[in-house]
């Protein structure tokens, strides 16, 4: 009994001792020096951040003098100058290495050095130069230029390459305008060589900007350099291949989940990732194939897997794999970029990037997370589960985005070069630069010009994205070419019926007639304002000038002799409100490929489809006036003015190139003027037999500039809902349309 | 308190029976233990408050409880920080691992009070209210883990928000002492006020090895793109002042300048603009008659006229945010809160959260050199865009600036997006204010494609038990050349679908619209529409007045030449 009690007491005493030690222990580390003890059971780390009850200081005291001292010492101008002198070379930025004063306001011009005799230039570089020379940025006067491009071929700076230009250093230094590279842009695809493939170009680029492929994040100077994609010698100059995706399939899975087919580097830089691919290859839906057979002495480095890999490699067709896989692996090559990237993009195969530290092409403006999966070389083994975890909705979006980006920025050399220039222009003009939405959504930055407006709601493309609607009225622009002599002229009838439309905000008469303006009282009195503008050069293109007086989003373009009823106008406008980015018109025309003559043909016959609407009576967004005037080259506009013909075809080309969709025909209307209907004997340009032949010529000329045929056929015409239905005419809102 | 208590109370009855020698021994032992316990308890709780008998896990605690750590003079100092660091070179991604939730885990070091060898603290303020808020927010979030071995990101509890209150060298030594420091790998530091006089560097001067820096006031030369995170400078007014949200629209002033410490060259420039444009500009400065302190921070003056700050910001369309000694300015936060569009003049400044936020939609950035042209530049912005930007500013503030929690969570989200880029938030999620998110339409099939006819279409026929009608539909549909597949959904549990090849005919078809003519049917459908609209929160259907016809529909044209000759004959 006693022993038992003794044990009890002993035990309790023991327990108390343990407790004592526990509490004491908690106290010890505070004064102790052993870090490890402290972190283990001192201030316990396995608890969330405590809520402290004591009053804490603010991090920014009220009375902390912010800039007093600074204010006295350094002038901000001095500080800027210091930056300019300190941040050079690898630390160049626009602020420190670019002379903005060379760039005139609202004008971004590019000068290309004249080509020197005896200098050989690769075809790719030649194409880059001629693209710039053919663009609206080009100037032949270096005094006007904001940016300079060398005529010395800098594309291939691999010393072992046959294209390598020697003595570039001296050649560049001797250029009279070089100015240590300030405001110069240097294009480069390959730099460095075996074994380390450095990113050095082998000559002093001074303060020049680089437009370079395979550029690494470490060497990339943000907002100064431009990362461009690696493209092959065969990359087309204009137009280019369309995206492979013709229609969306749901669910969006293809035969393979993930594929790759390419060289394997047995040793040296960049070999690790490709050598490890076989771990992930499963022969079923993840097919990653490599070959050792490349280079002269591959047999020397050959490893145990080579024979097996090579055999497997030959079993599969690369293009078949590309087109039948949901994801395509894009591992780095010797350099960071690889051809696989553009190939996958074109094939609508979502690229899975395995190239750590690669500054992706046009990263400054493209949000690649929406079109590619950015993997990590270190996590290669996780890649299959990562791509499998991506939801099918996301795959569908990724795939469509590959197609959008491919066609907007990559499909031709011209697009790559123009995108590069536009990016730099955005930096230079600052206020007039594109927002991320403009770059990353249809129709893309090359078609969305920020000089028109920085506000997305002013463009026809973003209404749905912003959740807003276009203006509820239109401006009519009547192109007048004959003098006003009688009160029965068609233009007066037209004015009256257009003015009666409930959606008409104002009418602009563009006076492109040689006779002086008629007196004000000669115009009929209307409820809407009629503004008469005298055409400056009286040329055809002036009907598509972006007049500031056009205040509505919609423009109703009219010829002076167009015959149109108020109902027709009203109906077409309501249709346009549903399709604000398209051309909405009445009489339609079509194009076709004439295989005998190997050229495009034009037809005005009644056919089951159409691809153009005539702009003598059409509604469209006013942005297309801006685009017509500022986007199209002088050569095409000049052709239109000279012929006084084809302006409508050119407008149709432009809008379809932007939207990738056909125009919209409304109502049965086949002609829109009396001359067309054969009721008038007056001489008209439509009666001219040359007129038709000219239009054929125009089509082919336009198609070659656009690098392909942008027109798209449609078999659909839009009519009022109750059109020709067996119901009382009184129930029909647009009943007049049936009577015509 | 402990098990011994119970037996102590019974003690007197037992003790007499024991031998005295033993009794004394036990009593002594017991008293020593008890006294020890009491002493420990007293030592533990006495200096602070009697009430805090509370346990460690309870909320109320003091920073003074944090263990004191003395830094030896020779304690190692981290390297200065590597400008070439990027996620793939300086960040250990293996710590984050594959994670089905695509969520990084963040560990917070427990609070310690670092002092140098002679006992002087490394920071004059210690843990600030803001940093405490930030750490609490992280610890309350789903990023938090208390398991140091599972953490992907480590956040020290050493407060470096304001470099001015830090002793650089000692702070660096303290960082290096953190048990998992490992050259700063995967460590994240938050700093809002970098640099110090005279030349105010644009990133925290504390040597920090490879640690990531969430910094306010980066310049393009110190910011490591894709590695650091640019954060705003938190404005203490955010917590104290409530500004009601103001509808977008024109305001009393066009441009307002409210900063107090503007370089005199710039102030002169602003005065000149004011002279040219008069009432459209309001130039405020600090009030000379008020003493320094919290009260003066809430007042601004113009020629003796006193204005409430930040309320006055709501009266202007545009508000100037000029660089001071530092690039990042707390004013930016006030301006956004007021729904005023910031006009940012701070060359080379990396705007807060610029990795994900589209600042073009919420601000105007003008090079310092173009300050004289500011008025002209702002005047050229269309009204609709101004309103759009006003809305955007307030939304940015609400979502990303309004509290230390918002700032901290945004920074972590950005890092999270880098580690799981395929699960990253989209541009729209980051940038579209709720009103746009509600009203915008983003089709899942956004690519303009005109699909070819070749894949054809699948017909899906829903049926109940009107077999004749079904057969008629099938007969008609199967004539269509583009039909690729026909799917009949048999929707009747009581009957099984008809078997085998039946002859498709329709002997006595009733009027097709027989059902729709039924009154109750129409009422039901109206009810459906109302119900659906209320669930959607809006009426998504749109009314149009057009319908699609074939190009030659009803044209006076030979029918056999038409692609779709029989349309409309029903």
UniProtKB/TrEMBL annotation, chain A:
UniProt-listed PANTHER family: ACETYLGLUCOSAMINYLTRANSFERASE, EXOSTOSIN GLYCOSYLTRANSFERASE 1
What does the record give as cofactor?
A: Mn(2+)
- Note the SUPFAM superfamilies from the entry: Nucleotide-diphospho-sugar transferases
UniProt-recorded name of the protein: Exostosin glycosyltransferase 1
Name the keywords, alphabetized.
Disulfide bond, Endoplasmic reticulum, Glycoprotein, Glycosyltransferase, Manganese, Membrane, Metal-binding, Signal-anchor, Transferase, Transmembrane, Transmembrane helix
Give the organism, scientific name. Answer: Esox lucius
The family note in this entry says: Belongs to the glycosyltransferase 47 family.
Q: Which GO terms describe its biological process?
A: heparan sulfate proteoglycan biosynthetic process; ossification
TrEMBL record, chain B:
Swiss-Prot/TrEMBL GO biological process terms = heparan sulfate proteoglycan biosynthetic process
Record's superkingdom?
Eukaryota
How the protein sits in the membrane? Single-pass type II membrane protein
Q: Name one Pfam family in it.
A: Exostosin_GT47
Q: Which residues cross the membrane?
A: 24-46
- Which residue stretches, if any, does this entry annotate as coiled coil? 256-283
Domain named Exostosin GT47: residues: 101-381
Q: Is this entry keyworded Disulfide bond?
A: yes
For this UniProt record, the keywords arranged alphabetically read as follows:
Coiled coil, Disulfide bond, Endoplasmic reticulum, Membrane, Transferase, Transmembrane, Transmembrane helix
Query: Record's Gene3D superfamilies?
Result: Spore Coat Polysaccharide Biosynthesis Protein SpsA, Chain A
Q: Name one GO molecular function term.
A: glycosyltransferase activity
Q: PANTHER family, alphabetically?
A: ACETYLGLUCOSAMINYLTRANSFERASE, EXOSTOSIN GLYCOSYLTRANSFERASE 2
What is the name of the protein in this document? Exostosin glycosyltransferase 2
Organism equals Esox lucius
Q: Which gene encodes it?
A: EXT2
């Amino acid at each position: 009994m006693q022993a038992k009690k003794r044990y009890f007491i002993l035990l309790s005493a023991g327990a108390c001792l343990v407790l004592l030690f526990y509490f004491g222990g908690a106290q010890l580390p505070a004064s102790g020096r052993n870090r490890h003890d402290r972190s283990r059971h001192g201030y316990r780390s396995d608890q969330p951040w405590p809520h402290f009850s004591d009053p804490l200081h603010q991090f920014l005291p009220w009375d902390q003098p912010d800039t007093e001292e600074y204010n006295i010492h350094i002038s901000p101008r001095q500080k800027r100058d210091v930056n300019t002198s300190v941040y050079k070379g690898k630390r160049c930025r626009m602020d420190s290495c670019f002379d903005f004063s060379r760039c005139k306001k609202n004008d971004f011009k590019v000068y290309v050095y004249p080509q020197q005799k005896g200098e050989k230039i690769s075809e790719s570089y030649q194409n880059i130069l001629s693209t710039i020379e053919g663009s609206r940025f080009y100037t032949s006067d270096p005094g006007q230029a904001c940016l300079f491009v060398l005529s010395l071929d800098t594309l291939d700076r691999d010393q072992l390459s046959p294209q390598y230009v020697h003595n570039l250093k001296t050649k560049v230094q001797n250029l009279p305008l070089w100015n240590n590279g300030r405001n110069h842009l240097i294009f480069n695809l390959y730099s460095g060589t075996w074994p380390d493939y450095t990113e050095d170009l082998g000559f002093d680029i001074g303060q020049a900007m680089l437009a370079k492929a395979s550029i690494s994040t470490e060497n990339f100077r943000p907002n100064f350099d431009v990362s461009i994609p690696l493209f092959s010698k065969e990359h087309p100059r204009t137009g280019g291949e369309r995206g492979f995706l013709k229609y969306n399939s749901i669910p969006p899975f293809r035969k393979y989940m993930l594929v790759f087919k390419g060289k394997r580097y047995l040793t040296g830089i960049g070999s690790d990732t490709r050598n490890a691919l076989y771990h992930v290859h499963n022969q079923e839906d993840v097919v990653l194939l490599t070959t050792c057979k490349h280079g002269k002495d591959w047999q020397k480095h050959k490893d145990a897997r080579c024979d097996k890999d090579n055999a497997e490699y030959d079993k599969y067709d690369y293009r078949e794999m590309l087109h039948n896989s949901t994801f395509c692996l894009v591992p780095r090559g010797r350099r960071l970029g690889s051809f696989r990237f553009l190939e996958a993009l074109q094939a609508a195969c979502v690229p899975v990037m395995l190239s750590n530290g690669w500054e992706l092409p046009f990263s400054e403006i493209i949000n690649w997370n929406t079109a590619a999966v950015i993997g990590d070389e270190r996590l290669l083994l996780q890649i299959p589960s990562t791509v499998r975890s991506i939801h099918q909705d996301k795959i569908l979006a990724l795939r469509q985005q590959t197609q959008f980006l491919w066609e907007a920025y990559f499909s031709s050399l011209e697009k790559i070069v123009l995108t590069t220039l536009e990016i730099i222009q955005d930096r230079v003009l600052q206020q007039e630069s594109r927002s991320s939405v403009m770059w990353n959504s249809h129709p893309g930055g090359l078609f969305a010009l920020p000089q028109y407006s920085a506000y997305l709601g002013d463009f026809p493309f973003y209404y749905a994205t912003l959740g807003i609607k276009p203006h509820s009225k239109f401006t009519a622009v009547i192109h007048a070419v004959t003098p006003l002599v009688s009160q029965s002229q068609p233009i007066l009838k037209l004015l009256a019926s257009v003015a009666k439309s409930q959606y008409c905000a104002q009418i602009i008469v563009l006076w492109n007639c040689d006779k002086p303006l008629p007196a004000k009282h000669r115009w009929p009195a209307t409820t809407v304002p009629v503004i008469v503008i005298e055409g400056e050069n009286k040329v055809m293109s002036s009907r598509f000038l972006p007049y500031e007086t056009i205040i509505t989003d919609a423009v109703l373009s009219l010829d002076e002799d167009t015959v149109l009823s108020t109902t027709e106008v009203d109906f077409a406008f309501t249709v346009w409100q549903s399709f604000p980015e398209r051309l909405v018109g009445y009489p339609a025309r079509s194009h076709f490929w004439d295989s005998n003559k190997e050229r495009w043909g034009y037809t005005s016959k009644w056919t089951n489809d159409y691809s153009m609407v005539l702009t003598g009576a059409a509604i469209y967004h006013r942005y297309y006036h801006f685009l017509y005037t500022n986007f199209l080259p002088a050569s095409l506009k000049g052709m239109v003015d000279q012929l006084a013909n084809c302006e409508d075809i050119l407008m149709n080309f432009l809008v379809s190139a932007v939207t990738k969709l056909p125009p919209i025909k409304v109502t049965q209307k086949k002609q829109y003027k009396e001359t067309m209907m054969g009721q008038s004997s007056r001489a008209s340009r439509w009666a001219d037999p040359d007129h038709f032949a000219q239009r054929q010529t125009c089509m082919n000329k336009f198609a070659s500039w656009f690098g392909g045929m942008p027109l798209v056929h449609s078999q659909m015409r839009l009519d009022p809902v109750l059109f020709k239905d067996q119901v009382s005419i009184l129930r029909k809102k647009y009943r007049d349309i049936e009577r015509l | 308190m402990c098990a011994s208590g119970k037996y102590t109370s019974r003690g007197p009855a037992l003790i007499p029976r024991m031998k005295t020698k033993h009794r004394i021994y036990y009593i002594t032992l017991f008293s020593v233990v008890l006294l020890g316990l009491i002493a420990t308890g007293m030592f533990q709780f006495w200096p602070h408050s009697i009430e805090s008998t509370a346990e460690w896990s309870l909320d109320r605690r003091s920073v003074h409880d944090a263990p004191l750590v003395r830094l030896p003079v020779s304690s190692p100092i981290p390297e200065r920080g590597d400008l070439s660091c990027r996620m793939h070179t300086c960040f250990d991604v293996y710590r984050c691992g594959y994670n089905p939730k695509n969520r990084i885990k963040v560990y917070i070091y427990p609070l310690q009070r670092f002092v140098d060898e002679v006992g002087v603290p490394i920071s004059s303020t210690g843990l600030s209210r803001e940093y405490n808020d930030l750490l609490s927010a992280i610890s309350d979030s789903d990023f938090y883990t208390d398991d140091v071995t599972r953490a992907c990101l480590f956040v020290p509890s050493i407060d470096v928000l304001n470099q001015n209150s830090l002793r650089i060298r000692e702070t660096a030594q303290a960082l290096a002492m953190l048990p998992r420091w490992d050259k700063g790998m995967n460590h994240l530091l938050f700093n809002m006020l970098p640099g110090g006089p005279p030349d105010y560097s644009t990133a925290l001067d504390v040597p920090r090895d490879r640690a990531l820096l969430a910094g306010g006031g980066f310049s393009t030369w110190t910011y490591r793109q894709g590695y650091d995170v640019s954060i705003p400078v938190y404005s203490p007014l955010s917590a104290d002042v409530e500004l009601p949200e103001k509808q977008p629209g024109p305001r009393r002033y066009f441009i307002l300048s409210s900063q107090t410490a503007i370089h005199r060259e710039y102030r002169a420039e602003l005065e000149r603009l004011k002279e040219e444009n008069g009432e459209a500009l309001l130039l405020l400065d600090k009030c000379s008659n008020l003493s320094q302190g919290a009260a003066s921070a809430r007042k601004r003056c113009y020629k003796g006229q006193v204005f409430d700050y930040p309320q006055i910001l709501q009266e202007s369309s545009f508000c100037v945010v000029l660089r001071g000694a530092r690039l990042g300015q707390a004013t930016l936060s006030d301006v956004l809160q007021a729904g005023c569009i910031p006009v940012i003049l701070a060359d080379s400044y990396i705007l807060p959260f610029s990795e994900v936020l589209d600042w073009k939609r919420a601000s105007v950035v003008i090079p310092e050199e173009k300050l004289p042209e500011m008025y002209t530049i702002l005047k050229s912005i269309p009204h609709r865009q101004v309103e759009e930007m006003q809305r955007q500013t307030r939304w940015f503030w609400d979502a990303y600036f309004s509290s230390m929690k918002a700032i901290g969570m945004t920074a972590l989200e950005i890092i999270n997006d880098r580690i799981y880029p395929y699960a990253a938030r989209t541009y729209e999620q980051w940038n579209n204010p709720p009103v746009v998110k509600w009203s915008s339409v983003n089709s899942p099939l956004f690519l303009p494609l005109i699909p070819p006819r070749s894949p054809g279409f699948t017909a899906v026929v829903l049926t109940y038990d009107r077999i004749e009608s079904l057969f008629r539909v099938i007969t008609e549909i199967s004539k269509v050349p583009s039909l690729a597949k026909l799917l009949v959904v048999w929707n009747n549990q009581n009957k099984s679908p008809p078997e085998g090849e039946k002859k498709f005919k329709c002997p006595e078809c009733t009027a097709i619209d027989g059902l729709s003519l039924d009154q109750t049917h129409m009422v039901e459908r109206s009810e459906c529409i109302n119900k659906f609209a209320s669930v959607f929160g809006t009426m998504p259907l749109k009314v149009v007045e057009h319908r699609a016809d074939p190009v030659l529909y009803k044209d006076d044209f030979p029918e056999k030449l038409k692609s779709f000759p029989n349309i409309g004959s029903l």
